[in-house]
Design brief:
One of its GO terms (biological process) is threonine biosynthetic process. By secondary structure, the protein is α/β, with parallel strands linked by helices. The chain is built from twelve helices and twelve strands. The protein has two domains: about 150 residues, Rossmann fold; about 160 residues, Dihydrodipicolinate Reductase, domain 2 (2-Layer Sandwich). A hairpin with a 4-residue loop joins strand 11 and strand 12.
């Protein structure tokens, strides 16, 4: 039987999440594609550690074997860091393979180039998972807000920071204690610098800025402040007055100029991001037709990220692979 073959690059938390979603929802995917979806290859540094988790899948350390396999139609990239992720995706696009990435650090640096390359080679590129986890913000902006002009975005883009601030307020924890709890629950890495110092939110804000405004501010001049200096006392003082401290990333277009900043801010109960708690993310947009619009949901973790990647996969199947004649019945829209 004909199958739609995919590969996964990287098999950490996100890569395993993609594997699980693809394997556990075969009926839905077959309805969308008209043929079974098969994971043929997983690229990993240490395949001997994972072969029992997917016994019918070929594990390899050789990226070239993925690139040279003409049966692989779509590549899911779930590698940490700019390289080798960027080089791998670039080569996959040139080889005519559709690509989907969750790598915000790589995509904020190379996304524009990869999008242009994908257009040149007429392949699909999905990157919804790079920003706000399971919230379909990229596809919403690309496909559902084509007439509306977005003038301003305020967002909570990092679930780790939001969890820490929530725990400090609700449980009276110190910053260090809340961070340790976040690490024990798997919400924070052993090195949490990108999360707590605002760099992760900055990467995601850059991706949103390029998508919405098609240009960027001078990022070297943009203030980026994390949450590591927020004290339990400051949290308590704001709570006593009915306010909450949130780590907010913001971009706006004012009189033709783009402004941006990432910093902790005190917000009142009337603010659209006030009620966003725990590891959740949210994006609040001001548009010129429908007005204010807020999307919220899980911002981190294996399944929210994998969900976004597989939704991108479905969009690629519908938009690109139908025209290529590689799929038959399309139920997705």
């Amino acid at each position: 039987m004909k199958k739609l073959s995919v590969a996964i690059l990287g098999f950490g938390t996100v890569g395993q999440g993609v594997r699980d979603v693809l394997c556990n929802h075969q009926d839905r995917l077959k309805e969308i594609a008209g043929i079974p979806v098969e994971i043929s290859t997983i690229l990993i540094k240490h395949p001997e550690k994972h072969h029992t988790k997917a016994p019918h899948v070929r594990f390899t350390t050789d990226f070239q074997s993925v690139l040279d396999d003409p049966a692989i139609d779509v590549v899911f990239e779930a590698i940490v860091g700019k390289e080798p992720a960027y080089s791998y995706l670039r080569q996959c696009i040139i080889a005519g393979k559709h690509v989907i990435t969750a790598n915000k650090e790589m995509f904020q640096a190379h996304g524009q180039e990869l999008k242009q390359l994908a257009a040149e080679y007429d392949v699909g590129i999905g990157f919804d998972a790079t920003t706000a986890g399971g919230i379909p913000i990229i596809q919403t902006i690309q496909h559902l807000l084509q007439v509306n002009k977005i003038n301003r975005v305020q967002a909570i883009l990092n679930g780790t920071s939001n969890y820490i601030l929530t725990d400090m307020r609700e449980n009276g924890s110190t910053f260090d204690d809340a961070l340790l709890k976040a690490q024990s629950l798997g919400y924070a890495e052993s090195d949490p610098t990108n999360d707590i110092e605002g760099y992760d939110a900055l990467y995601k804000l850059k991706i949103l800025c390029e998508l919405i405004f098609d240009e960027q501010p001078v990022w070297e001049h943009v203030k980026c402040v994390g949450i590591s200096q927020i004290s339990a006392k400051a949290i308590k003082q704001e709570a006593a007055s009915g306010n909450r401290i949130k780590h907010i990333a913001e971009i706006a277009l004012t009189e033709g100029a783009i402004t941006a900043n990432i910093a902790p801010k005190s917000v009142s109960a009337e603010h659209p991001l006030y009620a966003i708690e725990g590891v959740n993310n949210a994006i609040h947009m001001k548009t010129d037709i429908i007005g204010d619009l807020t999307l919220s949901g899980p911002g981190a973790g294996a399944f929210p990220t994998a969900s976004a990647m597989v939704e991108d996969f479905c969009h690629i199947v519908n938009k690109h692979m139908k025209a290529e004649g590689k799929v038959t019945t399309i139920a997705y829209s």
